Amino acid sequence: MVNVAVDAMGGDNAPVQIVKGAVEAVNANKEIKVFLVGKEPVIKEELSKYTYDMTQMEVVHASEVIETAEPPVMAIRKKKDSSIVKALYMVKDGSCDAFVSSGSTGAVLVGGQVIVGRIKGVERPPLAPLIPTENGVSLLIDCGANVDARPSHLIQFARMGSIYMESIMGIKNPRVGIVNIGAEEEKGNALVKETFPLLKDCQDINFIGSVEARDIPAGVADVVVCEAFVGNVILKLYEGVGATLIKKVKGGMMTSLRSKLGALLVKPALKSTLRSFDVQEYGGAPLLGLNGLVVKTHGSATEIEIKNTILQCLDFKKQQINEKIREKLGTQD
Amino acid sequence: MVNVAVDAMGGDNAPVQIVKGAVEAVNANKEIKVFLVGKEPVIKEELSKYTYDMTQMEVVHASEVIETAEPPVMAIRKKKDSSIVKALYMVKDGSCDAFVSSGSTGAVLVGGQVIVGRIKGVERPPLAPLIPTENGVSLLIDCGANVDARPSHLIQFARMGSIYMESIMGIKNPRVGIVNIGAEEEKGNALVKETFPLLKDCQDINFIGSVEARDIPAGVADVVVCEAFVGNVILKLYEGVGATLIKKVKGGMMTSLRSKLGALLVKPALKSTLRSFDVQEYGGAPLLGLNGLVVKTHGSATEIEIKNTILQCLDFKKQQINEKIREKLGTQD
After folding, report:
1. A193, exposed or middle or buried, with CB in 10 Å at 0-12, 13-18, 19+?
2. Are B249 and A215 in contact (CB < 8 Å)?
3. Residue B192: its chain A contacts at CB < 8 A?
4. Which residue of A228, A233, A259 is in closest CB contact with B234?
5. How far is B302 from chain A (nearest CA, A)?
């Protein structure tokens, strides 16, 4: 059995779609138990709409909610009875294997590190979402947990990312690239220039060299390593360019009677195409390297993303990701 | 009369499309004279295909070509008779007002700074392309000229970008945003945190605060300020996500007979929509802050981009961009 604490109060669609996604997850898999953390009366009212195996669902009352705009460090320290803090303590004390939240990214990241804690030897836990590419997905690591990283951090991101892609996505010997502004080794900023030769020396990493941003959507690397500021820009621009382009395509189709008729015909095919390029389809982003699993979903996550993310927690445990990280990166001190 | 030196040997489509674009530019405007720099026999053969006013076109022989893969500093130093070096000296000695090249970005950037030289007071000349947005264009500055910038550089980028957008694009009081990973002032890496309050204090800049990458395509800022590594990632990801998404949309339309029929009907409308989101449509990227104008087009530039870029040089001179930069940023030493 895998126990997953879910923040019932976080994100734009809480609690309605969070609760719905949790119900769908337990109905889809008997090996999962969800602990819905948040305001009990609200959660219970939502739950009353559905049928599910009662032994797979528990409500844990938390009277406070951390808002997205709150400064994260202060919020984690002060709101001891918030859904995020309570759920993180459930991962820390081992009663839950994982925590899923659509709430404040800052609070989840800070809380994950402060409350759940890092695996000994992991210098910085990176946030690592899957992003859609032409033929599948790539892991973008790091993407918002720690800005101004050092080369040693990027090496660890490459190792953890490789473990994740190999174990969860079944990609043997995943190709690791470093985000750069040119293909040659001498290109880049100080961080990339320093990291490049170190990555080349890692015998356990299938390092393919620099990856230009232009080639990321084509899927040239399975693990795309970068510092968090750059990673965050990549992730958000992916969403932004996609959204604007789709809006323009749709608008363009409405410009003449001829194209309007055509739009009716292409609509179903277009819909499934665009879904395959929607970052939400690939579940939440794990914060790797913690003593437990913490997953951040989009603030706008709907029940599909919540369900998929909860189900991913099962794979994460079964594939013993944390044991593998501990083995490769762990130290005794 | 505006004299424009054009690198006839640079880029994927040289010399054929470069020469064609130059001819189209002089045929479109009587106030332009183009100096085609490169291998004379080849250029003359291309020119013989067209009719144009001979007083508006001159060929300047250069026996060498700098290849894209060559280390730029060395190439500029050694290949004195290359089209890039010769053309840059024509800007330096005042016989030309501007230089346009689709060749090696590194060589153009290094050569621009070393040969043409910076306006006194400008610390670093940024590369500033226009990028398409939902309703128009934004200026992305800096985008590949200098990585690991300092706050004072970013302030100058904001000033030069404002001058450019106001004078060339006619946008009164252009909105300036700094690329960041969150909307709040306390967010960001060390560089952004240090730059933010300084930008806020600039009375002559219409600073609107942080801009998240997600919102750039929506056109929330007219001038998007960032350090060159991040800017390069943004520019190239724009192209990459766009290309992959369009490929997917086209592929998706071919999945059924119904959608294939629809595709035929939407094709013309879709084509013009996608053109408006093509970075090539907006001409080359100027390297701002030099004692003359140096413009880098895409390596894959076709005759349309060459023509548009040459015509832009006219606006640049008429609007006295360099005089305005000198006035705002210039110093005597």
Report:
1. middle
2. no
3. 229
4. A233
5. 19
Between chains, do B249 and A274 touch, taking CB under 8 Å as contact?
A: yes
Helices (H) and strands (E) in chain A, counts: 11, 11
Contacts (Cβ under 8 Å, ≥6 apart) of B204 = B159, B162, B328
Q: Which amino acid is at B22?
A: A
B241, A236: Cβ pair inside 8 Å?
Answer: no
3-state helix, strand, coil in chain B (%, to 5): 50, 15, 35
Chain A residues with CB-CB distance to B107 below 8 A: none
User: Residue B170 class from Cβ within 10 Å (0-12 exposed, 13-18 middle, 19+ buried)?
Assistant: exposed
> Two tokens at A50?
């559905």
Q: Which residues contact A258 (CB under 8 A, 6 or more apart)?
A: B265, B268, B269
Task: Give the global pTM.
Answer: 0.92
Chain-chain contact of A181 with B242 (C-beta, under 8 angstroms): no
Q: What are the DSSP calls for A7-73, one per residue?
A: ETT-STTTTHHHHHHHHHHHHH-TTEEEEEEE-HHHHHHHHTT----GGGEEEEE--B---TTS-HH
Q: Distance between CA B214 and CA B212 in Å, rounded? A: 5
Contact between chains at B236 and A213 (C-beta distance less than 8 A): yes
Q: Among residues 57-76 of chain A, which lie with CB inside 8 Å of chain B? A: 69, 71
The two most distant CA atoms of chain B are separated, in Å, by 70
Assess A190–B contact: CB distance below 8 Å, yes or no.
Answer: yes
Three-class SS of residue A300? coil
Q: What is the pLDDT along chain B (333 residues), one digit of tens a residue?
A: 999 999 999 999 999 999 999 999 999 999 999 999 999 999 999 999 999 999 999 999 999 999 988 889 999 999 999 999 999 999 999 999 999 999 999 999 999 999 999 999 999 999 999 999 988 899 999 997 778 899 999 999 999 999 999 999 999 999 999 999 987 777 889 999 999 999 999 999 999 999 999 999 999 999 999 999 999 999 999 988 888 888 888 888 888 888 888 888 888 877 877 777 777 677 899 999 999 999 999 888 999 999 999 999 999 999 999 999 999 998 765
CA distance A147 to A135: 30
Helices (H) and strands (E) in chain B, counts: 11, 11
- The answer to whether B225 contacts chain A (CB < 8 Å) is no
For A184, what's the count of Cα atoms within 13 Å in the CB-facing half-sphere? Answer: 8
Instruction: Answer whether A190 sits within 8 Å of B268, measured CB to CB.
Output: no
Phi, psi of A6 (to 5 degrees): -120, 130
CB contact under 8 A, A133 and B244: yes
H-helix or E-strand spanning residue A240:
helix A228-253
CB-based contact (8 Å) between A161 and chain B? no
CB A237 within 8 A of CB A131: no
The secondary structure of chain A in percent helix, strand, coil, rounded to multiples of 5, reads 50, 15, 35
Block residue for tokens 């879904």: A275
